[in-house]
Recover the amino acids of this structure.
């Protein structure tokens, strides 16, 4: 009986050791899988954040460039219109002055002719 008892105890010890080893292996595998999943998720989140930031920066730069171009075009158009208006006003004034001078000289000449 004593040998049978020893055999049962040895079998129990072996079973306990095997169960402990299996549990430890399962826990290690689960921990490794969780760590890998967490690392992959973190990498994906970082990549998404970087892509979003790059897209936002590109959109902001494009908007700023468009606004600057529009402002420059408006300024150029306003300056050109002002220059055209000034040139037209100067030409009109010169024409009016020339016409007035010609009329005045003509009238003076006619008056002088009456006196002669």
């Amino acid at each position: 009986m004593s040998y049978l008892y020893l055999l049962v105890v040895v079998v129990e010890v072996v079973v306990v050791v095997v169960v402990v080893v299996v549990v430890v292996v399962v826990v290690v595998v689960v921990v490794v899988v969780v760590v890998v999943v967490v690392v992959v998720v973190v990498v994906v989140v970082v990549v998404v954040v970087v892509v979003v930031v790059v897209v936002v920066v590109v959109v902001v730069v494009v908007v700023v460039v468009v606004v600057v171009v529009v402002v420059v075009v408006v300024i150029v158009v306003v300056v050109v219109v002002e220059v055209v208006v000034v040139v037209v006003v100067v030409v009109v004034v010169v024409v009016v002055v020339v016409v007035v001078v010609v009329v005045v000289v003509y009238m003076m000449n006619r008056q002088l002719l009456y006196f002669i």
In short: The radius of gyration is 50 Å. Residues 47-116 form one domain. The chain has a mean pLDDT of 91.
